[in-house]
Amino acid sequence: MKARWCLLALGLGLGVSHYHCRTRCGGTSIVHLFEWPWRDIAEECENYLAPNGFAAVQISPPSENVVVTQPWRPWWERYQPISYKLCSRSGTEQELRDMISRCNKVGVKIYADVVINHMCSASAGEGRRSTCGSYFNAREEEFPSVPYSASHFNDDKCTTASGNIENYQDIYQVRDCRLVGLLDLAHRKEHVRERVAGYMNTLVDMGVAGFRVDACKHMWPEDLKAIYGRLHNLNTEWFPEGSKPFVYQEVIDLGGEPIKASEYSRLGHVTEFKYGAKLGSVIRRWNGDKLADLKTWGESWGLMPSDQALVFVDNHDNQRGHGAGGASILTFWEPRMYKMAVAFMLAHPYGVTRLMSSYRWDRSLVEGRDQNDWMGPPSYPDGSTKPVPINPDGSCGEGWVCEHRWHQIRNMVMFRNVAHGQPLLNWWDNGGNQIAFGRGDRGFIVINNDDCTLDALLQTGMPAGSYCDVISGQRTAAGMGCTGKRITVGEDGRAHFTIKATEQDPFVAIHAGSKL
Ligand code: AAO
Hints:
By secondary structure, this protein is α/β, with parallel strands linked by helices. Helices cover 19% and strands 18% of the residues.
């Protein structure tokens, strides 16, 4: 059945020349260095992210959190704040400060994941079992290090019997009750707004360039607006005068609930969860979905407008069955399809792109559910996080996956920079799972997710010359050699592509920076 598509002839588009970013193109992609220690992030900015054109790092929540021992030090303890002090499993405040400054110096921005919707779980107990040793009493809702006390929480507004969100169809529950039992802050109150903005401003003043704001669906848009309105401009040691923090808000909107992502998009960017769910389904070829359908990828698929969207193939939740997205989500556990999905995302102009950089855990799927979805990062018996060692071949050791260091992904990050601002042109498909498209005259990608060879003469829109495919290899340092396939673009902009269905990475990408 698939073969029918494979027999279809090639199609040709028209190449049009557009603007160029002739100097070194600015970075366009964020990488989430999930659970990384601050010291390793600093090194990564200097040694790897800056030279390879990454724009920014999303860091794990830097605020003090509860220490969970049942199960043992799960990653999700960092989503249970105890105070806004800056000691965490990733390091000390000094290490955080040093990392932000070193990354800024080499032009890599830091976006902090801020957990401001709630504090720890109502059942977290009492004591000093927290990452800076601050005292708290969850039952009494006492967090003296902020300080917050019972009147700063939403108990008076929540109407469910359990005090938790029980029904996502009720917008009042979703905003005023506890998300999975987490003590829900009352952001309409001046003191809470002032404390939250104070925390975010401490980070802005230290040099962060913006925020991933956790659990925004569970906060009222007008309260968030009031908080964002208090944020300082970025630190002028590194950023132009008058620069505002870049804010992207986590709102899970797959449709089917009354709270919409669009309620938040006037305040900042919003996570587009449909992106990874739908793209995963296409790459898996589920329900008759095929790559050719991606010709119209974007708003007509029900995605939010491109200039509001923060997009990703997977995130730290849905790569392990938390949050939302479901079984179609692709992750590093299925590397061949994952790389194809990430390459498509980075080549396509839609949205602001974020890459996931993960660690491995003892995945144990029972009836589709992972029994070990809680496991924290590679760590020593005392719970402290292990450093991220870099192997001689550039990969990471000790269970750190470092998807962002896979050369196919790294090279597509550069593709996106080089193609930035260029329109999608020269779309071609075989009606099935073979597609190609260009970005102005700056880049061209060809993907074969069919069961047969792709063999086609395609209009690339690129200037004539010899290019190095950045997926099977890359240009050598001197610029003349190529460790992968060579693609020759003729005077008419056309080039011949052959991709066998059995290739380890069944896609080819060339761009202005890979010209030989
Ligand atoms: C932990 C334990 C809990 C315990 C709690 C308190 O796991 O058992 O009750 O402590 O003791 C993370 C972990 C949580 C963890 C928490 C605190 O994921 O397991 O709880 O830290 O330590 C909702 C929110 C969304 C949230 C997501 C996980 O809307 O904001 O849940 N993500 C962020 C972070 C996340 C973090 C938190 C928030 C909390 O990224 O890491 O939690 O700070 C529906 C709703 C979504 C909802 C999901 C999941 O989704 O639409 O809004 O996300 O349900 O509850 C289909 C539907 C889709 C639906 C989905 C799942 O796909 O189309 O809409 O099914 O039903």
